Amino acid sequence: MIESEANSNALDVSKALRAAGLQVTAQRLAVYEAVRSMPHAIADDICQAVRGELGVISRQAVYDSLNAMSEYGIIRRIQPAGSAARYEDRVDNHHHLACRQCGEVVDINCAVGKAPCLVAEHDHGYDIDEAEVIYWGVCPTCQSISNRDD
Amino acid sequence: MIESEANSNALDVSKALRAAGLQVTAQRLAVYEAVRSMPHAIADDICQAVRGELGVISRQAVYDSLNAMSEYGIIRRIQPAGSAARYEDRVDNHHHLACRQCGEVVDINCAVGKAPCLVAEHDHGYDIDEAEVIYWGVCPTCQSISNRDD
DNA sequence: CCCAATTCTTTACACTGTCAAGAATTGGGA
DNA sequence: TCCCAATTCTTGACAGTGTAAAGAATTGGG
C-alpha cells in the first residue's frame, strides 16, 4: 500500500467525521479503509479486514462505525435482497447490478441520464428522496459455469 | 368475506399451484389468501393471519409456501433494506415506495413508461432479467407526525 | 492536564430464515 | 375406492445479521 495515499485518504475521512460531529478514532478510520479497499463487502468481511489491520475490534464497533458513517453520507449502505447489508465508499448517485447466483455486486450508472428514476409516476403523497435501483441478472462468470454444466 | 370470491380465488391458486407442479394444500391456500388480503406483509404477519384461519400452521410451512409460490411467480417477494422480506399477490411489473420512518410499502407504477429501467447503461456482461426499483421517502402520516413534533 | 461526552468492549439477546428427520397428506394409478 | 410413492408439514435445533445495555476506555475542548 502506498503510505501517502492511505494518509491523504485518512485525512479526508477525519475531516468528514469531524464535519459530521463524530469523533475520529482508529476503529473508524480502519473501517473506512476496509470499505474503500473492498467495496460492496458485508459487515463481517469488514470486521475481518479491520482485525487484520488493527489486531482487535469488536463486532459492535464495526457496526457502530458503519451505521454512523452511513448516516452522515461518508459511506453508503446497500442491501440487496437475500444478502446482508453491503457498504461502499462511492456516495454519488449510481445504481447496482447484482448476480442472482454468486451475489456479486457491481456499480452501474443510472439508465436514462442523471436521476430520472427519482420521478415516480404517482408519489402517493410521499416525500421521496431516493430511488434505489438494483438490476438483477447473472454475471459473466456464473454464465460460463452454467454453460459448462450443459 | 364473500364466500364465492374466496372460492374463485382459491380455485385460481389451485390451478396455478398445479401448473407449477406443486401440490394443493390447505396451508398453501391459506398462505396465499393471507398474502392477498394484506399485501406487503412480512412472513411473521402472514403466519399470524394463517393461524387465525387454520388454527395451526408451522412457521416452516409458511416459509416453504412463500418460497415455493415466489419461485413460481404465484406471488412476489420484495425485500426493502432494513426490513424482513415482504410478499404481495400482484406479480406484474411494478415498483415500490417505502417509508423510511414507519416502513410502510405501497405499489407504484414504473416511472418512465413500460420497463425502461431494465435497460442499464452498461451491462458489464451480465444477463439482466429484472430491474428492482424502490423509492424511499416519508409517507404522509409520518410527515404529519414530524410536523406535529416541531 | 483534566473532565465530560463520546466511543469501544463485552455479553446477552431478538429476529429472520434455513436444515434435518420423521409424521402426515396429497394425488395418480391399480 | 384403496394404496403407495412423492411431496409437504411439524418439530426442534441452529446459523447469520444486527441491536441493546452497562461499564471501561478514548477523544478532544477548555
Describe this structure in words.
Two copies of one chain form a homodimer. Chain A is an alpha+beta fold. Chain A has two domains: 3-78, Orthogonal Bundle (Arc Repressor Mutant, subunit A), CATH 1.10.10.10; 92-149, 2-Layer Sandwich (Dna Ligase, domain 1), CATH 3.30.1490. In chain A, 43% of the residues lie in helices and 19% in strands. The first copy, chain A, has a three-stranded antiparallel β-sheet with strand order 1-3-2. The first copy, chain A, has a three-stranded mixed β-sheet with strand order 5-4-6. In chain A, strand 4 (95-99) and strand 5 form a beta hairpin. In chain A, helix 2 packs across helix 4 (59-71). The longest helix of chain A is centred in the first third of the chain and has 17 residues, at 3-19. Chain A is globular, with a radius of gyration of 18 Å. Chain A starts with a helix and ends with a helix. At the A-B interface, strand 4 and strand 6 of A face strand 4 and strand 6 of B. Strand 6 of chain A pairs antiparallel with strand 6 of chain B. Chain A binds a DNA duplex (30 and 30 nucleotides) through residues 22-28, 42-44, 56-61, 63-65, 68, 84-85.
Low-confidence region ranges of chain A: 1-6
* Assembly classification: homodimer
Main pleated-sheet profile of chain A: 3 strands, antiparallel
Summed over residues and divided by their number, the pLDDT of chain A gives a mean of 85
Coarse structural class of chain A: alpha+beta
What's the CATH class label of the largest domain in chain A?
A: Mainly Alpha
Q: Report, as a whole number of angstroms, the end-to-end distance of chain A.
A: 43 Å
- What fraction strand of chain A? 15-25%
Largest interface, Cβ cutoff 8 Å: A-B, 42 and 43 residues
Reading the helices and strands of chain A in chain order gives HHEHHEEEEEH
The count of β-strands of chain A is 6
Q: Helical percent range of chain A?
A: 40-55%
**The CATH topology of the largest domain in chain A, please?**
Arc Repressor Mutant, subunit A
* Number of spatially distinct domains of chain A: 2
Q: Characterize the overall form of chain A.
A: globular
The number of helical runs of chain A is: 5
- For the largest beta sheet of chain A, what order do the strands appear in spatially? 1-3-2
CATH superfamily of the largest domain in chain A: Winged helix-like DNA-binding domain superfamily/Winged helix DNA-binding domain
Radius of gyration of chain A: 18 Å
CATH architecture of the largest domain in chain A: Orthogonal Bundle
